[in-house]
Amino acid sequence: MKIVVFDDDPTGSQTVYGCPLLFQWDKEILTKGINESSPLLFLLTNTRSLSPEIAEQRLRQICRTLKEVIQENELGLDKFFYISRGDSTLRGHSLLEPKVINEELGPFDATFHVPAFFEGGRTTVNGVHLVNGTPVHKTIFAKDQIFGFSTSHLPSWIEEKSNYKIKSEDVSLINIDQLREASIDESGMQKLINFLLKLSSNQPVVVDAESSIDLNTFIASIKLLVDRKRFLFRSAASLINSISNIYPENNNIKDFSRLRLRDQNGLFKPGIVVVGSHIQLADEQLQLLLEKITCVGVELPVNKIARIFDCVPKDSLLLDLENLWAQHLLDIINSNKTPVLFTSRGELSFISSKKRMHFGVFLAELMGRLVNRISNKLGYIISKGGITTHILISEGLLLKSVEVKGQVLPGVSVVCASEKNKDKLPIITFPGNLGDKETLLKLFEIMQSSCN
Asked: What is the pLDDT of residues 252-283, one digit of tens each?
């Protein structure tokens, strides 16, 4: 069965390889996508950057076009697995998106919430979601200005995120003990299957997972029921490995630095690092990278840009500044150093989360345009932050689709254009919430190692 992943930013493919990521969703592109040989098809919706109203509108449009394509190709809606891929730290429109998919492509018997992401230390035990062993509500991710929350107990989190329309006691749980029992004998598997058979009316279900064995067992039970039940998944990236049976260690590409582009003389072109993520971890990673004498920072002053954002017209006011920043990037490249384009650190306060989202997109579009202006000079791009990366690829580089080549570090993918008339510029898609303070520096050193 084909697996369609509605990905709310471009990092959900961070554990697989050899599959297409679509940034546009017209009939022609979707038809090509569902006929690709890979069992996986990612639809990059970028809904995490949008208000609930616009996110819903976009996702409904994608689902309806996909439904038309599936019906026109006489494939049947039940011949696909559908995954709403979200953040492993629980940020995003976590209930809205599976609700829309259920209404447009369902009905489904259940929606499984599976936020485990092992490469990032995210696990779920007894319904409690953890980040490296710490309950997620005690981490910085729970303090997100737009998608914050107060509990790590996923049934209670679902209750909170549903504005208390769904009661925690009405959320089912597949716990570790059930999965372990199902993994070791047939009677345990039959108990799990019997539980799944009773699910109906899009029942919300939380799934525990401490290792890939747990998810493999869960998916094995799901696949035994493909002709009897229809299920929907809201998950992080690790579930995608289990359902597709694609694992990064099987990839034959090992040295991703060799994807770096060369100039007409056969010399490796320089790279650029782009940091849009504003969480504390990103700040620490950026600071360490800027200590390298071969890296030169170009800081975009967020306060000044925010004042321009409030003006009408905006574009004319930004143009002179854009020209200066673009020239600065070129000067750094011409001096044989690596530009690091980043937004000034810290978060601004806005009168509404909707305005905060609109400004985030405005800022990411600015960064995308700047990268586009020097893209012919570049051998690679490292992009930190999901929304930043999505807009850089789709609106800055104007790509309709890319192919996932694999992971340069755990959870950090390299993608290249899949369109025939586009350069295969490698883009490292680095999630904002991943790694330690040295990870960005490691990525830079890996991509530069091709010169050694």
From this structure: 998 999 999 999 999 999 999 999 888 888 99
Task: Verify that 182 and 205 share a domain, yes or no.
Answer: yes
Per the rule left: phi > 0, alpha: psi between -120 and 50, beta: everything else, 266 is: left
Cβ atoms of 109 and 203 closer than 8 Å = yes
Residue bearing tokens 């058979």:
197
Burial of 82 (0-12, 13-18, 19+ CB in 10 A): buried
> Could you give the CA distance from residue 423 to residue 398 in angstroms, rounded to a whole number?
12
Q: What is the SS3 assignment for 57?
A: helix
- For residue 308, the enclosing domain spans 256-451
In 224-314, which residue ranges form alpha helices assigned H by DSSP? 238-244, 280-290, 302-309
Tens of pLDDT, residue by residue over 397-414, are: 999 999 999 999 999 999
Q: Where are the alpha helices (DSSP H) in 295-427?
A: 302-309, 315-334, 353-374, 386-391
d(CA 173, CA 155): 8
Same-domain check for residues 338 and 372: yes
Dihedral, CA atoms, 432, 40, 171, 115, nearest 10 degrees? -20
**Is there a single domain that holds both residue 262 and residue 245?**
no
Distances in Å between the Cα of 281 and the Cα atoms of 51, 76, 148, 377, 411 are 25, 44, 17, 29, 15
Across the chain, how many H-helices and E-strands are there?
Answer: 14, 18
Q: Which amino acid is at 173?
A: L
What does pTM read for this prediction?
0.90
Question: What are the tens digits of pLDDT across the range 20-79?
Answer: 999 999 999 999 999 999 999 999 999 998 999 999 999 999 999 999 999 999 999 999
* Residues 399, 381: Cα–Cα separation, whole Å: 14
